[in-house]
From TrEMBL:
CDD domains: GATase1_CobQ. It comes from Methanothermobacter defluvii. Residues 36-198 form the CobB/CobQ-like glutamine amidotransferase domain. Its cofactor is Mg(2+). NCBIfam families: PRK06278.1 (NF004921). One of its GO terms (molecular function) is cobyrinic acid a,c-diamide synthase activity. Pfam families: CbiA, GATase_3. InterPro entries: CbiA/CobB_synth (IPR004484), Class_I_gatase-like (IPR029062), CobQ/CobB/MinD/ParA_Nub-bd_dom (IPR002586), CobQ_GATase1 (IPR033949), GATase_3 (IPR011698), P-loop_NTPase (IPR027417). This is Cobyrinate a,c-diamide synthase.
Length: 487
């Protein structure tokens, strides 16, 4: 029994282990070790990522997927892999007019902009190779998508309970999985569904008539496949990595925070994660708040899965409480990189505790690298913004290790404005539209450019030396915060 995993530029097989099922890599040419996929595989899994946005499904790969579907073999798409199986996806979230990417047309649905980043519980509502005999049962996983509104006539197989959509409280059930009329092609928006729900994995193995011997062979082949995937940064980069060895106890951590959204913290965190992984370190990447899409580029580059501890809860938003996150990461990584949310001060004066990145860093003694972008207000304003933020943070008792001005367009002005207080990253020209997960993004280009930029312009050894072992010590109360913020 052989199960293929599509592993092309823009796909994120590291997001999950797919229930330890895949045994072979299917390249963009549709080949598996030189053989056409439909001739050697019994099924294929298409993972999430940016394969729809980047248009990276080649005609050769598309042919193989269609052929496997027509031959009655199973085809499973997850998130953007699901979108690739659909009729088309409108990726024009920032456009007043639809911007369509055509899919393979194997599932009679279309996708439209709708952001969801919840941990979810989904109810099985229909029959397919994936959900056979499970009607009414509930499964768990997570959503991590920008284009999640599904319209069409394909038979539905699951609906997810969500709390938020498009950054607003919007509790309810949404369609999150469908199948073909024959039931051998299915798509779901629920990441982690195979890892967290053994019944789905068992259904796939039953569909393949896999006996115990075949299952053992699949598990062993998957182990070797995962080792091969983890030995390379990104997809098809040729950059090989080796683990130095694990660490005991709680790993040191540092937060990449900013003076506001679109400052470049995602870019810097991604580049730093790649630089550290290249050195053989096992890097944990975590987001403050619920928008885990921001850490997808880093996870894609370093081949780490999305975990429940990947999102630190603030207020009612996010997945796991800080105290539990710190316990969950013990012994698993050599260093933890935490990406802040909006400005590190945003939400600081909310009566709900915690509600800001500053409170998270302060509660666990996590040092902070502050980032300010120069695109909107210029270099001078960025310096003033950094000065003001750092003053408040230090008043709270938070350790700010350094400040970085991002997208610096004139080094002379930077030197005069910063007076040597801060570091600089020059403006980077991206070959493709978009530098954040909010818009169309080619993961490979973004990730490699981020790593190249960080390694060229920052002293990585110095930055990681700032990291300290976090220890939860409780949150500062609202009244105490107000006294510091408004003395």
């Amino acid at each position: 029994m052989r199960i293929g995993l599509v592993c092309i530029r823009g796909s994120v097989p590291a997001f999950e282990n797919f229930g330890f099922l895949p045994t072979d890599i299917v390249g963009s040419n549709g080949l598996v070790n030189g053989s056409r996929a439909h001739r050697v595989l019994d099924g294929i899994i298409i993972p999430g990522g940016s394969i729809v946005e980047s248009g990276s499904l080649s005609p050769e790969l598309a042919f193989e997927i269609r052929r496997m579907a027509s031959d009655g073999k199973f085809v499973l798409g997850i998130c953007s892999g699901f979108q690739a199986l659909a009729e088309r996806t409108d990726i024009g979230r920032k456009s007043p007019c639809p911007v369509y990417r055509e899919g393979l047309g194997l599932l009679n649905v279309t996708f439209h902009p709708m952001i969801s980043n919840d941990r979810v519980e989904a109810t099985i509502t229909g029959e397919s190779f994936l959900t056979s005999g499970m009607s009414g049962e509930r499964i768990t996983g997570f959503h991590c998508h920008t284009y999640g509104e599904i319209r069409g006539d394909a038979p539905e197989i699951m609906r997810s309970r969500i709390v938020r959509a498009d950054y607003h409280e919007r509790p309810g059930e949404i369609l999150s999985g469908v199948c073909s009329d024959d039931g051998n092609v299915a798509g779901t928006m629920v990441h982690g569904c195979l890892d967290e729900n053994q019944a789905l994995v068992s259904n796939i193995l039953k569909f393949l008539d896999a006996d115990e011997t075949a299952r053992e062979r699949i598990l062993e082949a998957n182990r070797k496949l995962r080792e091969a995937l983890r030995s390379e940064l990104g997809i098809s980069t040729g950059i090989r990595v080796m683990d130095r060895g694990g660490t005991r106890g709680t790993p040191p951590a540092i937060m990449i925070a900013s003076t506001g959204s679109d400052s470049g913290k995602t870019f810097i965190l991604t580049g730093l994660a790649g630089a550290l992984r290249r050195r053989g370190l096992r890097v944990g990447v975590i987001k403050v708040g619920p928008d885990v899409r921001d850490i997808v580029p880093a996870l894609y580059l370093i081949k780490e899965p999305m975990e429940e501890h990947s999102s630190i809860r603030i207020g009612r938003l996010g997945w796991m409480e800080l105290r539990d996150v710190l316990e969950s990461v013990r012994g698993r990584y050599d260093i933890i990189l935490i990406e802040g949310v909006m400005s590190i001060l945003t939400g600081l004066l909310n009566d709900i505790t915690p509600y800001s990145g500053a409170e998270i860093a302060l509660a666990a003694g996590i040092p902070v690298i502050m980032v300010a972008g120069c695109s909107k207000g210029g270099i001078e304003s960025a310096v003033v913004d950094l000065d003001a933020h750092i003053s408040v943070l230090e008043g709270l008792g938070l350790e700010v290790s350094c400040g970085i001005l991002n997208r610096v367009y004139d080094m002379d002005i930077f030197e005069r404005a910063s007076g040597g207080r801060y570091l600089a990253i020059p403006r980077v020209e991206m070959s493709e539209r978009g530098g954040t997960p909010e818009v169309e993004l080619k993961l490979e280009d973004f990730c490699l450019k981020a790593m190249e930029t960080v390694e060229e312009h920052l002293d990585v050894d110095t930055l990681i030396s700032f990291a300290k072992k976090p220890e939860f010590r409780g949150y500062m109360g609202p009244e105490e915060i107000k006294k510091v913020f408004s003395p």
